[in-house]
Amino acid sequence: LASQLRGEAARAESAHAEALRRAFAEERAALDAELQRAQAAVDALSAERAALTEALHTRRAALAERLTWLRPAPPPPPPELDDAPLVAAPFVGLTSVQREPLIERLAGRDLSPLQVTNTLLSMLTGRWTLLTGPPGVGKSALARALLTRLGHGPDSGRGLELVVRRDWQDDAPLFGFWNPSTSRWEPSSEGLLERLLRAEDDAARGLGGLYPVLFDELNLAPPEHYLARLLSALEAGEPTIRLYDRELRPHNRQRYPQALRVGDNVRLLATVNHDDTVERLSPRLLSRASVLRIEQDGATAAFVSAEPLDEPAPRWDALQAAFLGRPAPLGALEGLLNLLTRQRLPGAPTPRVILAMERYLGAAEGLIPRIDAEDLQLCQRVLPPLRGVGPRWRATLDELTRRLQDGGWRRAAARARALREQGEAQGDWYDFLQA
Question: How far apart are CA 365 and CA 226, in angstroms?
């Protein structure tokens, strides 16, 4: 009996094990079939994705033929070229200049010698020179012709002409910006930063080049916005423009360093209009500029020739040595300037303005009669920043006009009289440039 029981137990255990094996095999076969179906679905999706990607690329390529911004960007230049420091081109200029013959050559047959002398002395004695006057009088043509004849115009590789756009609301269009995605300083296409870097190298190597920058229609956009970095730098004794923080360390920092110095060989010129389509100039800018009014006369400067002279360009240090001597005392102008200072009027002459006037009067000796030089400085340095409102301002203008007339400064007296008349007609609101 015991033997029989053991046999039945063995047969039952064997049957159970066989049943488990069959169940496991069936479950495994089912899982394998499910896995094959899933793999087939994945393969189908991959094929569909590849087809869609190819279709997308084909459509993008077709659109790129019509939309240029969809075209792939060109590969970046090699690092050794993209990061090369900017250096000034070799320049061999005249080391000695005679004042009267130079002015005669610059004036030619279509410019007034007084106009040329006044503009050149304004450039030599101050960083900023603003040309104002009615539209179409030839402000840009005059500046362009003078710089070209001097040998330092845009075609020389040193001068630069910029046409201001209304959408310039910060200084990125002129100086570029930091690109965090590429760790690079992205320069502007206008070329101002490159000119300043070459001017810095020129000054460091003593090449003697002049780097004038002409802003056409300076106040079409707010200058205090798009020139903020430059205006702030020029406040310092050694003007330095800081582009970015030292910790950024862009890949092209050899070409675009963290800071650059604006040397004395950089001069800023600008044409300015005054109507409802432009921005008002701030007293901050006007107090640092010489404001030259280009009059509308029979021989408008709009038709002057901008061809360079058939002579080597004078070096910037040679021009300074020829024209800039010792500053001349203010003389009779001192009492007039004291009147404006005592009244504490907005735009009253600052020590910086007075020093520039003394340098101009010293440089004008032998070229412009003293009374005419004083008259020009009053019109170009003293009167432009003046603006105010109210009867007190009107009374001060009356006294100023009387003193200008008594002193023999006819141009300045006429301008002050026009300012007084127009301001009274506008409800005691006075603005010299608008007048």
Answer: 37
What single letter denotes the amino acid at residue 233? A
How would you class 35 by CB atoms within 10 Å of its CB: exposed for 0-12, middle for 13-18, buried for 19 or more?
A: exposed
Q: Contact, 138 vs 300, CB < 8 A?
A: yes
Measured CA to CA, the distance from residue 236 to residue 267 in angstroms comes to 16
User: 177-185 contacts: CB < 8 A, separation 24 or more?
Assistant: 178/244, 178/248, 178/250, 182/251, 183/248, 183/249, 183/250, 183/251, 184/250, 184/251, 184/252, 185/243, 185/244, 185/250, 185/252, 185/253, 185/256
Query: Whats the size of the chain, residue-wise?
Result: 435
State the burial class of residue 397 (Cβ atoms within 10 Å of its Cβ: 0-12, 13-18, 19+): buried
Predicted model pTM: 0.78
How far apart are alpha carbons 288 and 291 in whole angstroms?
9
φ, ψ dihedrals at 32, nearest 5°:
-65, -40
**SS3 per-residue string spanning 164-199:** CCCCCCCCHHHHCEEECCCCEEECCCCCHHHHHHHH
In tens, the pLDDT along 246-289 reads 999 999 999 999 999 999 999 999 999 887 788 888 888 888 89
Tokens representing 45 are 């999706």
Cα 266 versus chain centre, distance: 13
**Cα separations (Å) of 289 from 43, 64, 292, 375?**
74, 49, 9, 16
